[in-house]
């Protein structure tokens, strides 16, 4: 009896068809990444049909190894193509452009799933264990995250509230004057609807509402080092781990080298750190997003543009990111500890 | 646990991959059957797997995917008369619209200038556009055309006796979807009309087409004089290959 065989498609039939002229751009960027030694050979998939997708998988492997598993954050790094004229390559389901003269790549990063994490109880518990520890940990978190993975914290919420609701003033009175005049009934009705200063005071302790001026990272590091030594009891395990994470974060050398060059309101926050679950922080954050989306806004945390003529610059960016990757890891660990994984 | 991800936005996003095969069986008297088969990768070779009969719905979905620029879903405006594949036929009711001319030196004096433009009354028009054709005819009256409606040659320059529009250097819209109708109308009426195309009479008017448009631009007619239209000796239904009265 003759064995049945399924019909095979000859090798002359292509398995995939790509927009012809644009394949040249893919090949050029693949060559650039290889020349930049952007990934190790071990990260290149064993089999592949698309060189740029193979590069993406290799970069993805490199990134995962650099940052490791995370509890709370989901960073997404992206590489965009930029033409010699400085135009971004865009393809969102419509027909791809017929020609694209790629001249550079732009690497950027952002948070893919920003979420609310209530950290107030965790910080208060730290200060209860060791006076001032919660303040210092929060300050290190805010300060070191600013250029690598900005967090929407209570001090930022208070600052945003002044221009979002209060016409730039310290409380809501000027906004009430402007909208209601002397009509007390109307003022109270509006006050009941809006975010007020007393609402912020009730939501956040005073030490979390403002940036502690004069508190430098070196001082924080000294404090945290001493704290880690003092926290030796069996009940101190969690507080000690938080102090050690914050100390490691404080010791990292991070600057604003890769600040995104984008006009408009910055909304690229990596996470929303509320004090208590469901407090006013998320409301302010949502209102900020709504305002931002009415005009220009920036939701990228960092970016760097590298010419295809200069593959070495891409390698330099990757090396410079090492401290930022370490910071992302520590920020994630601290948020996880402070929110108890909530 | 979460993981960071690396993503590259690149032209490869437009790549299509071999996923399925369609086998078509033709019968006598126009009957047809198609089966859809997944392509499987067996030992590095592409193999046509077992198939399923293609349903009408699957056939339509496939046709839509293949004709992205000729979408057929959604509500249709009353000006749309006919659709088949990427062919769309629509009606533009009679109205005053702006028209502009740029004629050669020879006719400039008689025309009243080399470049002239005015808002003038136009007859009802029927356009047909697809990836291969772009044609236009005139119709009499203000009623929505039916398959029995008689077609007339449009009185405009740059259109031949068969209704083919000479697009010259003017860019034409990409795609023939309902949403693109306004763009097609603009592409026609907002271009300069420069010269009559081909032999044959454009209008039945003393002095010919140049004299007619000079008088139109001079405001001689408050309504479009339909008597000047030249009969194309066909109907909309016949043009579309439909049985009369269908």
Structural features, described:
The complex is a heterodimer of chains A (342) and B (246). Chain A has helices at residues 20-35, 51-67, 120-129, 133-145, 154-164, 173-180, 184-193, 197-203, 206-209, 217-230, 237-250, 280-292, 311-338, and strands at residues 16-17, 75-83, 102-111, 116-118, 151-152, 265-266, 271-274, 297-298, 302-307. Chain A has a three-stranded antiparallel sheet with strand order 2-3-9, covered by helices on one side. Chain A has a three-stranded parallel sheet with strand order 4-7-5, with helices on both faces. A two-stranded parallel sheet of chain A has the order 6-8. Chain A has 342 residues and is mainly α. The model of chain A has no long low-confidence stretch (mean pLDDT 88). Chain A is built from 13 helices and nine strands. The radius of gyration of chain B is 25 Å and the shape is elongated. Chain A binds chain B through residues 6-9, 13-19, 22-23, 25-26, 29, 50, 52-53, 55-56, 59-60, 62-64, 66-67, 69-81, 89-91, 95-96, 100, 112, 328, and chain B through 1-18, 21, 39-40, 42, 45-49, 68-69, 174. Strand 2 of chain A pairs parallel with strand 1 (5-9) of chain B.
| β-strand number of chain A | 9
- Content of β-strand of chain B: 25-35%
Percentage of helical residues of chain B? 10-25%
- Tell me about the largest β-sheet of chain A: 3 strands, antiparallel
